[in-house]
Amino acid sequence: MKKLILITGIILFSLTSNAQENINFDPFRDRDFVNKFMQAAAIIFVIYLIANFFLSLIKLFLEYKLKNKMMDKGAPENIIRQILQPQKKDSRITAIKWAIIAGGIGLGFTLIAIFPPFGIHSVMMMCFCISLSFLCYYYFVKKTEAQAA
């Protein structure tokens, strides 16, 4: 929740810092604004990838140290495996999740292309389509959990 609030605050701050007196300012038609926004998004994405890489390395290193310490203490090998065993994710569910979300994004872009004057209503259509895709995913997961039980 804190990340969502932080990201929303950064986006709103960047929009307000680019405020101008022009009442007809449209951030989607201003090429300089779009370029700066894309550069900022790319930088944030690269920082995320680098941080995720370092966190994965640290996690692997700490698990290795923990495994060695447990072996030195004489813990049974099957217990060590159970503790350090990675949690299994259902790849089918993950693939379906991303397919549903990508379909929602595609639907949003299609609606934006059909209704051409780009503006705030384009963002609203995209947000609605993405939230609709998450809702579909929620009902899919709820249905599969009910069938599994």
Molecular structure report:
The protein is mainly α and 149 residues long. Helices cover 81% and strands 0% of the residues. It has 5 helices and no strands. Helix 4 runs antiparallel to helix 5. The radius of gyration is 23 Å and the shape is flat. The two termini are 30 Å apart.
Roughly how many Å is the radius of gyration?
23 Å
| Low-pLDDT ranges | none
Shape: flat
The H-and-E topology, N to C, reads as HHHHH
Helices and strands, with pairings:
Layout: H1 2-17, H2 31-73, H3 77-84, H4 91-114, H5 120-148
Helix pairs in contact: 4-5
Give a short synopsis of this structure.
This protein is an all-alpha fold. The protein contains five helices and no strands. Helix 4 runs antiparallel to helix 5.
Q: Which tags fit this structure?
A:
flat, 149 residues, 5 helices, single chain, mainly alpha
